[in-house]
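Hey,

Quick one before I head out. I ran the complex with adenosine-5'-triphosphate overnight. Inputs first:
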Amino acid sequence: MRIAVTGTPGVGKTTVARRLADRRGVEYVDVTQEVREGASAGHDADRNVPVADIDALEDSLPDDGVLDGHIAHRLDADYAVVLRCKPSALRKRLEERGWERDKVRENVEAEALDVVLAEALAEEIPVFEWDTTDATPDETVERVAEAVEEREERHGVVDWSAHIGGVR
Ligand SMILES: Nc1ncnc2c1ncn2[C@@H]1O[C@H](COP(=O)(O)OP(=O)(O)OP(=O)(O)O)[C@@H](O)[C@H]1O
Ligand SMILES: [Mg+2]
């Protein structure tokens, strides 16, 4: 099974995906790193990041593994784990990384608007959505591992609509 661990930057994908791969004894793939190392098709000048080459990425991915990245759900995955974080808490996590205001704002806004969740649902694969805001990484990994095992489908668990006005 190809499992995508996806979500807005800072929600906890890497923390969870590495441990999930260890637990299942399957390969862990850092999708963002793959894009940086060549699976790219051009450069996004506004954001100063490479643009992912989805076809090139798909060619190099294991059928059985955990894919970590905010575009992981687009890579012909069989199951998507969409991690979420309350916008105000995500803002704090991203500010603590020293990210620029605009970059923080863009991502907090995307989280508030369910952008990654909507994309994952559009892939028509089972989606398990989990809110990391008040959960520990241990709890999260435990619950996500169980969900993957059962191919549990669960979404619509958070509603950040009351926070949208506060993201700017
Ligand atoms: N329930 C949780 N699950 C995962 N991480 C959590 C949780 N609660 C708090 N955190 C913390 O949130 C941070 C998430 O960072 P992490 O690098 O895993 O995010 P990411 O989604 O991979 O970000 P990026 O897209 O920038 O790579 C870590 O410091 C982690 O300890
Ligand atoms: Mg990461």
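The mean pLDDT is 95.

Talk tomorrow,
K.
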